[in-house]
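For this section, I looked closely at a protein sequence along with its fold in token form, which I now present.
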Amino acid sequence: MAQTIRKRSVRLSGLNELEAEIMQIAWTRGRTTVRELHEELLLKGYIPYTTVMAAMNNLARKSILKQDKKNKTYSYKPAISSTDMANNIVDNVIDRILGGSASPIISHLLKLNGEEEVAEILELRNKLQS
């Protein structure tokens, strides 16, 4: 008898699509409420208020957003910078998928970048070597 294999979605970032969108807005705004964020998401299409609220609570539970409960209306602000989040994701991919080797990622990035980005990479390399 054939065994059924369940497909599992791998979310190395720990963020689903909605959470990533919420974080983009939170990083831009700094401090926000569910209502403010919901209104901004509505500009892209309908999404239930309660869905946004649940996603923001999940992000707070994951310590990605800080939740301020002092007032009747909770406010949220990023607990981690977008750069730190990106670094965590890349580190996770290197460790879990690439067995600790960063070479495939570096090769990929160098293929995608134009001259200006290559100059930035070389500058970063020089800073790291200093």
Q: What stands out?
A: Confidence is low (pLDDT under 50) at residues 1-10.
